[in-house]
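Q: What changes when S-adenosylmethionine is included in the input?
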Amino acid sequence: MNSAFVNDMFSSISRRYDLLNDTLSLGIHRIWKRELISTGVAHLRKVAGSKVLDLATGTGDLAFGFAKRTPESVEIFGADFCAPMIEEAARRQAAQGMARIQFRQGDALALEFSDQSLDLVSVSFGARNFADISKGMSEIARVLKPNGLALILEFGRADSFVGRAFEKFNSAWLPFWGGLLTGNSDAYRYLHRSSEGFPSGEDFLALCKKAGFASCEYRRFFPGNVFLYSLRK
Ligand SMILES: C[S@@+](CC[C@H](N)C(=O)[O-])C[C@H]1O[C@@H](n2cnc3c(N)ncnc32)[C@H](O)[C@@H]1O
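A: The predicted holo structure follows.
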């Protein structure tokens, strides 16, 4: 899907995005994100890393999570190309008083960071929206230091009966509730379709290897259609 469409879509739902996330996932997205944050924090401790980018940060869930669990010396950036999403993140930041996160507008396909400058890059539920996924992943590889880590949390194809039943349920549930709460059911139809089309599991690992990652692995979360990819440069 092209970038302008995705940007407009997230602009239209930004004010209710957090409410929708909690409602539609029944709060489970917080558990998946906590797992990603724990993996990231463990990596930062091991490499004494000090620079983190949460890309496609949206309203900043992961950036806030890293800020809560790392020392002040760790620099945290949150970037998203959608201005209204970043404004929501800034609103939360003001409310929580977490001044050290640097939220900014930025495109995953043309990162403003220099080569080999970051220890950790995270993306939750953003990679499938990149207009060019390979380009997005090679940009992430470019800005990571040698031995840096990318953690990508994303939907994908389920491998179990329960997972597939859940996907079927979501294909009706997401547009219905999303439409009711934001007035934009098309956005939620798109969000569901984009996860079905996203290369998941081994297919995504193969794409990441081509994009410049040396070691790639993934874990699958219940109900089988959520993946956490750990990609090392
Ligand atoms: C489903 S939201 C996820 C937000 C947040 N990471 C979370 O997990 O709640 C996807 C986000 O990706 C952002 N996004 C999509 N393509 C992008 C790109 N090329 N560069 C930067 N952000 C992008 C959208 O603006 C949106 O905020």
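Observations recorded in class: The chain has a mean pLDDT of 91.
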